[in-house]
Amino acid sequence: GGQNRSAFPAAQGEHLHQKMSENGALPLRGKVLTVDTMNANVKKVDYAVRGPIVQRAVQIEKELKEGVKKPFEEVIKANIGDAHAMGQRPITFFRQVMALCTYPQLLDDNKFPEDAKNRARRILQSCGGNSIGAYTTSQGIDCVRHDVANYIQRRDGGIPSDPDNIYLTTGASDGIVTILKLLTAGEGRTRTGVMISIPQYPLYSASIAELGAVQINYYLNEEKCWSLDISELQRSLQAAREHCDPRVLCIINPGNPTGEPLRSFPYKTKSNYIYKGCEFHSFKKVLFEMGPEYSSKVELASFHSTSKCYMGECGFRGGYMEVINMDPEVKAQLTKLVSVRLCPPAPGQALMDLVVNSPQPGEPSYQTFIKERTDVLSALAEKAKLTEEILNTVPGISCNPVQGAMYSFPRITLPERAINEAKAKGQAPDMFYCMKLLEETGICLVPGSGFGQREGTYHFRMTILPPTDKLKIMLNKLKEFHQKFTQQYS
Amino acid sequence: GGQNRSAFPAAQGEHLHQKMSENGALPLRGKVLTVDTMNANVKKVDYAVRGPIVQRAVQIEKELKEGVKKPFEEVIKANIGDAHAMGQRPITFFRQVMALCTYPQLLDDNKFPEDAKNRARRILQSCGGNSIGAYTTSQGIDCVRHDVANYIQRRDGGIPSDPDNIYLTTGASDGIVTILKLLTAGEGRTRTGVMISIPQYPLYSASIAELGAVQINYYLNEEKCWSLDISELQRSLQAAREHCDPRVLCIINPGNPTGEPLRSFPYKTKSNYIYKGCEFHSFKKVLFEMGPEYSSKVELASFHSTSKCYMGECGFRGGYMEVINMDPEVKAQLTKLVSVRLCPPAPGQALMDLVVNSPQPGEPSYQTFIKERTDVLSALAEKAKLTEEILNTVPGISCNPVQGAMYSFPRITLPERAINEAKAKGQAPDMFYCMKLLEETGICLVPGSGFGQREGTYHFRMTILPPTDKLKIMLNKLKEFHQKFTQQYS
């Protein structure tokens, strides 16, 4: 039978209790749950990529639909890395296998290639009752975890990966929050500190706020293409020790816009990586190159998802994490903790499997898969270049090369008068800028203040995902707007 | 480009810092993350339905596969409400629409009925870039929230439901934890207390422990078919006030094994409900029947998911919650909070839509849908009856009628000697019983102690989901085991 579960504030219980005692109608108390009585940590959470500017963008879209006249015809959302929403097409093979898993009657359909059918059969055999509608184990479907481990092992040139160290997750965010949760302890000066890069992705600051941990900022060097200076990491760590217990170092690899701090850190060498899709320097591999003292001791958790790269399958919420050198007792606690949510979505798990176990040479879907993947990655590389080139022609905008992700974080020079007007309004100056941009052009970007930036500098973050023709229009509109804005406030 | 994000304990940072300063190899500190230094609340979390007994069951399954001889040939898992894993077939219409959403090329295939295609087109039109791989809004796809609101409105005989009050969730668990998180505040005597029924579903105790809230037990009356006595609710509330701030009352409706406390509470009347699938008394409707003072003031959050009832689609992690009378500022905080996880899985959202917007009379899929749904519900009703009947023939087992869910929670009488032996082993007596049952028969049940029970009473929880013939075998094996166990320890 169906269930409908309720959790509600006890004003009710209170009142009913009073009613029972006195047998008369009593006025109810005011709200049980108010901003004054709610979880204080939740109030501190900020999440810029879905913040006020995006809410306004959604409103403007509604107004446009209702026929309200605007100086533009559509809102271009470059606020979040949502590839399919920007017109990127899903990889055919992935969707074929997913359809087969969902509706296995299609396994009899000769329109589907044999390799897609084989993958689907294999996944279904690992599901309870051969249904993707069954709960999976909390750590994730066995064969998927094995495939992930094999993938990591290939990626790292044979360095072993143990399926027992793989946890499938609901997107990468879920895994990151889970690990931070495990690590959060202590009070006051012993409270867990979490080192994050500035600029950061706001998931980190939001989770740290929600958990009541301490956020420790280390600043990336914008002048050196957002690289990490060791002295800055050192400064940040030392400063943090005065008021908390720094226990976690978060790094985004490859850049977002963060580069390759770990490798440059121990070796004091630098190597550049170029825009090449999913290629990157694995931290785990670096640990193994540093020798057994490191590879057998350093605790490392790394995360990946189906949402980014050439896949862009955000809606499926597929992801994994690999934890190495985790204390076995803590790992048991981790497994227990993830079991409370029962399991990550099974379709997301299946999709993650396809990402790590894609068509191989000789299989019927191989050619199409390679072509589709190459097309997406070349388009991204082209758009990355386009973004950098056009933005750098604008006086007052400076944009580092977009090297390894789908985002750019250009710096903008704002006139003093604009900064003052924003401050008078109680707005961050780059929020003021982005809000005006949205109202006048329909372009939705996120102010740099939502990601963090050095005091006195201003940025915006934009994805490079809109289709090339639309991206060009957008960049040129942005150019025009910036010039007008600068004139207006000079 | 691809990203791989890492969060790792700072032993690394520590060491590297030392290395930089001294330019020599230093031994690494011990583990940063140990059971002594981890989040203390997480350690307190227990989750019986995926606890030690289930881990042992998984192990036994592996042993059987490896050819280890056992007194049984397979493990029968009746520990969790995982319908498809127990052989229940998915509803054809649901899976057809999901396959169409996943691989829209199938929209040209004339094997799929028109109503399935129309549903799929409508869902895809609400998705960014017409792809179920795009992020949805954090609150959930617009048209799905509208359909949920309409469904609730129909369910409650026209009492209005506002789509703005609907939040789609990753299964019901996600919504429940989110609401409890919002409500958790205060310290010591002002710490939020959460009233939960005993027996409970362990998600509640686990979430309360993780959030560091205070668990307040109210005991259901086993003698009266697990109904709720008002005096018990009163006792529980008053006792709780001595040490915390009781702010939330959690109720499971219909029974699991909880009955209909809300209705019986204000009205002091009782009405019986029978095994009828999804039919139940809506708390919201009751509030409206009580008049505007209640319907406009009492804060209520209710939850539903695709996992239970005739659907049994657990793996998709679809769910929704409706919040009524929530303070608008708090609601803004809720929306912000859910946005940190970006969105619930889009396939789960789509599936939720189909549940609330199933085939209608006259549509091509209607007949099949009704037949499939009826078959599942009749089978459940039959199995509920079977379970009660067989178990009640066993001296020392007493089983209430299974009325509104897929679980039963029979009471078992254990011999004094068995209780003592368990205690000597440091085990709960019903864990001792269930572990023996598993080792000797392959039947995996969950001890009552994982759900809570009155001191000195012992139970197990079993689902009634195994196929009828297997359920019969299981119940008879259970009977035999109980008799043997009782003899052995008498």
TrEMBL record, chains A, B:
**Classification via PANTHER family:** ALANINE AMINOTRANSFERASE, ALANINE AMINOTRANSFERASE 1
Cofactor(s) needed: pyridoxal 5'-phosphate
* One Gene Ontology MF term: pyridoxal phosphate binding
Catalytic activity from the UniProt record: L-alanine + 2-oxoglutarate = pyruvate + L-glutamate
* Pathway linked to the protein: Amino-acid degradation; L-alanine degradation via transaminase pathway; pyruvate from L-alanine: step 1/1
Every Aminotransferase class I/classII large domain range: 96-260, 292-476
To which species is this protein native? Cyprinus carpio carpio
Quaternary arrangement and interactors, per the entry?
A: Homodimer.
Q: Name one GO cellular component term.
A: cytoplasm
SUPFAM superfamilies xref list? PLP-dependent transferases
Query: Which named protein is this?
Result: alanine transaminase
Extract the Pfam families matched here: Aminotran_1_2 (PF00155)
Q: Please state what class of enzyme this protein is.
A: transferase
Gene3D superfamilies according to UniProt: 1.10.287.1970, Aspartate Aminotransferase, domain 1, Type I PLP-dependent aspartate aminotransferase-like (Major domain)
> Which InterPro entries did the record assign?
ALAT1/2-like, Aminotransferase_I/II_large, PyrdxlP-dep_Trfase, PyrdxlP-dep_Trfase_major, PyrdxlP-dep_Trfase_small
* Cited function: Catalyzes the reversible transamination between alanine and 2-oxoglutarate to form pyruvate and glutamate.
Q: Which UniProt keywords apply?
A: Aminotransferase, Pyridoxal phosphate, Transferase
